[in-house]
Amino acid sequence: DEELFIDTSVTAMKGAKIFLKYKLFNEEQILINKATITLAFVNMHSKKPCKPSGFIQELLQQKLQEDLQTV
C-alpha cells in the first residue's frame, strides 16, 4: 500500500457552481494525476440549482481567496 496526498484548490465560484482543481501525489511527492471538477449546489426539494448557504459560501469564498493568492 502507498500513502497518497491530495492538493485541492478552489479556482472559481459562479452562482450555484464551484470549480475545483486536484493534484494527486505519491509518498515521494511525485505528481501522479491532475483533475478539474465542477460541482453544483441543488435544492433537494425543487431539484433546481441554488447558491450555497451563507455559511458555506463564506467558507468557500475564503478558500478561493487563499488559493488565488498562492497562484
What does this structure look like?
- The protein contains one helix and three strands; from the N terminus they run βββα.
- By secondary structure, it is an alpha+beta fold.
- Strands 1-2-3 form a three-stranded antiparallel beta sheet.
- The radius of gyration is 15 Å and the shape is elongated.
- It starts with a strand and ends with a helix.
- The mean pLDDT is 92.
Q: Could you give the count of β-strands? A: 3
Order of helices and strands: EEEH
Average pLDDT over all residues: 92
Helical percentage: 10-25%
Q: Specify the structural class.
A: alpha+beta
Residue windows where pLDDT falls under 50 for at least 5 positions: none
| Biggest beta sheet summary | 3 strands, antiparallel
Q: What percentage of amino acids are in beta strands?
A: 35-45%
Count of alpha and pi helical runs: 1
Integer-rounded radius of gyration: 15 Å
Distance separating the two termini:
32 Å
If strands are numbered along the chain, what order do they take across the biggest sheet?
A: 1-2-3
Mass-distribution shape? elongated
Gist of the model:
This protein is α+β, with helices and mostly antiparallel strands and 71 residues long.
Q: What's the structural blueprint in terms of helices and strands?
A:
Layout: E1 5-14, E2 17-25, E3 31-40, H1 54-69
Antiparallel strand pairs: 1-2, 2-3
Name the descriptors.
single chain, 1 helix, alpha+beta, 3-stranded antiparallel β-sheet, elongated
